[in-house]
Design goal:
single chain; mainly beta; Thrombin, subunit H; 1 helix; 7-stranded antiparallel β-sheet; 103 residues; 13% helix
Length: 103
Amino acid sequence: MMNSFQEQLAIDNKNVIYNTAEFALSIKWNGHALIVVDETPTESSQFTHGITSETVIYRCAIDSLNPPPEINERVDINGNFWMIVSIQKLTNDFVIRLERLRP
């Protein structure tokens, strides 16, 4: 029996995209292991009015975060606090943009 397109996409994501031997990395999200793909642009820091902010963009499997993330939620990633500024919900993934201020 053949898989549906959505089922095959989920299998491919798990075996390739979210494989830490390929594209993914493991982070600690609020103390729990989370497999993500870092989609952060090369220049992810901005300097405005004497304040530097940093942005990261992570893609993760939609079923890997429960409860789902919310905009303006403060999260601890690997011991650093970040604010969720946008969430894009795709078919099988979340694309989450986070920011933090740096001294």
